[in-house]
Amino acid sequence: MRRVGDNDSVTSLGNTTTEGFRSGFACFIGRPNVGKSTLMNALVGSKVAITSSRPQTTRRAIRGIVHRPNAQLVVVDTPGLHKPKTLLGERLDSLVRSTLTEVDVIGFCVPADQPVGPGDKFIARELANVKKTPIIAIVTKTDIATPQQVAEQLLAVGRLGEFADIVPCSAADGFQVDLVGDLLIQRLPEGMALYPEGDLTDEPEQVMIAELVREAALEGVRDELPHSIAVVVDEMAPREGRTDLVDIYAHLYVERSSQKGIIIGHKGERLRAVGAAARKQIEALLGTRVYLDLRIKVLKDWQRDPKQLRRLGFYD
Ligand SMILES: Nc1nc2c(ncn2[C@@H]2O[C@H](COP(=O)(O)OP(=O)(O)OP(=O)(O)O)[C@@H](O)[C@H]2O)c(=O)[nH]1
């Protein structure tokens, strides 16, 4: 996958301001698990953010870049907004709030298959304070709702606030994903391209790799455990004398030793499965073979510990 920096030549930006060319930033906001990351990936046409059925998968503002002949849209995927229970939760919420003030247009995601609830209303109230930025309400996951449910949801969402547009879509089957892109782009200012053609994200490679490991580890774990998992890539380098193999050393952190046991599994089976699944994804990302050395460490209550949060890359 092409990322920013893969082609360092600024001249490749092609940044002559052609008349009518639009560029700028959009962010998706919504409760955890409503499909924000999946929609961003669908718009970009590539997996730039990990997704899972566990709430609170996204922990960073990840940027995906959508290229059109007449526009460049940078989508910022934010963590799901909810009432924070830990210091990590507070940091994630403040990340969302600062993102909201920095973008040209906001996409407010509400799933079609669940009634509008207190979580959606809480976000709608927050959005009412964002005065100048247009908001497009997006009713997601239409593929798992009946037409009647979708119609009712469009009306219910309409009652949540003032929106520039309300649009139903499904990232799973592609229904109206391009239209979502068009509507967001319409709200961007005229301006030159912000990233070189072909770049799909500006996430550093090591962060994307750590995220792929976390995604694999999230598979099949429940309750509080997903929240307790963090992954850091400590080192990565091509194997000496080889051009086709990269060595990656990573740590997976959990908060308690009981969690460590769950991740490792019976005779290490689960950890091996996580490593194998992650390696496959990383090899697809890097286009080379990968040796992944994955170790587990307990970092006691890291979600509540400012020092450990910094160590894991979550800053104030
Ligand atoms: N059927 C269906 N499922 C979807 C769709 N979009 C997302 N999902 C599923 O919903 C779950 C959550 O998707 P994410 O994209 O991770 O949701 P998110 O809003 O980014 O979640 P957080 O990171 O927790 O804020 C995953 O299991 C997705 O596969 C869709 O259009 N249709």
TrEMBL record:
Residues forming the KH type-2 domain are 221-300
Region feature (G5): 169-171
Residue segments, region G4: 140-143
UniProt source species: Actinomadura macrotermitis
Look up the record and report any one GO term of the cellular component aspect: cytosol
- Annotated stretches, region: G1: 30-37
- Record NCBIfam families: era, PRK00089.1, small_GTP
UniProt xrefs under Gene3D superfamilies = 3.30.300.20, P-loop containing nucleotide triphosphate hydrolases (3.40.50.300)
List the molecular function annotations (GO) for this entry: GTP binding; GTPase activity; ribosomal small subunit binding; small ribosomal subunit rRNA binding
Biological processes annotated in GO:
ribosomal small subunit assembly
Q: Where does GTP bind?
A: 30-37, 77-81, 140-143
Note down the stretches annotated as region G3: 77-80
Q: Where in the cell is it found?
A: Cytoplasm; Cell membrane
Topological category with respect to the lipid bilayer: Peripheral membrane protein
- Relate the assembly described in the record: Monomer.
Per its database record, what is this protein's job?
An essential GTPase that binds both GDP and GTP, with rapid nucleotide exchange. Plays a role in 16S rRNA processing and 30S ribosomal subunit biogenesis and possibly also in cell cycle regulation and energy metabolism.
Origin superkingdom: Bacteria
Lineage at the top is:
Bacteria, Bacillati, Actinomycetota, Actinomycetes, Streptosporangiales
- Region feature (G2): 56-60
What family is reported?
Answer: Belongs to the TRAFAC class TrmE-Era-EngA-EngB-Septin-like GTPase superfamily. Era GTPase family.
| Listed name of the protein | GTPase Era
Domain Era-type G, chain residue ranges per copy: 22-190
Q: Is ATP-binding among the key words of this record? A: no
Primary location recorded for the protein, binned into one broad class: cytoplasm
Keywords for this protein: Cell membrane, Cytoplasm, GTP-binding, Membrane, Nucleotide-binding, Ribosome biogenesis, RNA-binding, rRNA-binding
Q: Which InterPro entries match?
A: G_ERA_dom, GTP-bd, GTPase_Era-like, KH_dom-like_a/b, KH_dom_type_2, KH_sf_prok-type, P-loop_NTPase, Small_GTP-bd
